[in-house]
Amino acid sequence: MKNLFCGIDISKDTLDYAIICGENKEITTSSQIENNKKGIKKLIRHLQTDYDGADIWVCLEHTGHYGLLLASLLAENNIRFSMASSLDIIKSVGLTRGKSDIVDAKRIALYLATNNYKLKPTELPSEAIYKIKTLLTIRQQYVKIRTQFKNAVKSLKIAGDVVPLKEEIKQYNAEIKRYDKLVNNIEIKMKKIIRENKSLDKNYRKITNILGIGPITASQFIVITNNFTAFDNPRKFNCYCGLAPFEYSSGTSVKRRTKTSHYRNKQLKAALFKAANTAITHDTQLKTYYNRKIGEGKHKMCVINAVACKLVYRVFAVVNREEPFVRMAI
To answer: Residue 245 needs a FRET pair 20 to 30 A away by CA distance; which of 27, 115, 188, 236 works?
Structure first.
């Protein structure tokens, strides 16, 4: 059976694609289609009709909403595809000069043809998980706007000592209350979606019983792990979040301190650091661990990072077993 690898470069309006033969790594086809149902169905017909009998594997970058329609239609038509990190693709192609959409499509196809042995076909999350993911994004935007209003109120109060600004401060406070309601409504919607799904609700209840893990952090865990199917162990998840430290040394002359990588999910790491700060306040076991490490001279942020790692291990432990989390007494 002939192996064909198709790389697709995604933009808002168009999709550029290139198809490479697995045997000789030569480009067999390259073209452009519109990024809509009509264009994508045309590409699917081309793959299924013109390459009938061939083993086709498609690769595309993670591009958020712009690639969602393409991914869903590929899955609907049982075409194997993988969604790869753009950084992973860039790092794999080596030194390059110049850039265009069609060239990027060829590079993605070559990346797939070269690295398919370590890639896995992508399984799209359920509609419930994708909706929670979208609601989390909306909530983050609301919180960001609300924070801007809160900071503006602080500035206006300082300026209010010089000029009268009571009316403006009142209007800003009204906006803050409005966004409080919007954020609260988003959280209610997310909880409703989780409650209506037995599998999500089961894991959600388990992990929110862990001190430090609140409803938002629990929802992020469910979305990013695809309800704990995308990651099979906490070590990989800690690496993804940027909590796992890595050695940096070479020979006898280069020996830098062990530190976490800047390739990470910054939003989730920030959420886990907040969870760790809550845990060392309310969890006796983690509080004792934190105080002991600080007493040994460890840097505060290093210890917080270690506590966040412990929380991740606890989350995966309670999900992988039927027993709930038990709070240990010291």
So the answer is: 115
| pLDDT of the residue at 219 | 95
Look at residue 28 and tell me if it is in a domain: yes
| Domain end among 118, 135, 158 | 118
* 245 beta partners: 260
Kind plus residue range of the DSSP H or E element containing 312: helix 300-319
pLDDT for the residue numbered 58: 93
Q: What single string gives the DSSP state of each residue in 124-166?
A: PPPHHHHHHHHHHHHHHHHHHHHHHHHHHHHHHHHHTTTS--H
Residues 105 and 142 both lie in one domain: no
**For the chain, which ranges sit under pLDDT 70?**
1, 254, 326-330
Strands 55-61 and 27-34: unpaired
User: What pTM value is reported for the model?
Assistant: 0.85
Does one domain contain both 110 and 137? no
**Distance, CA of 162 to CA of 141 (rounded, Å):** 33
| Host domain of residue 243 | 234-319
Dist CA 191 CA 164 (whole Å): 43
pLDDT computed for residue 328 by the predictor: 60
Cα 288–chain centre separation: 32
Residue type, 82: S
Whether residues 137 and 189 fall in one domain:
yes
For residue 81, give the CATH number of its domain: 3.30.420.10
Judged on CB neighbours under 10 Å (0-12, 13-18, 19+), 75 is middle
Which residues are paired to 3 by β-bridges?
A: 55
Question: In whole angstroms, what is the distance from residue 255 CA to residue 247 CA?
Answer: 9
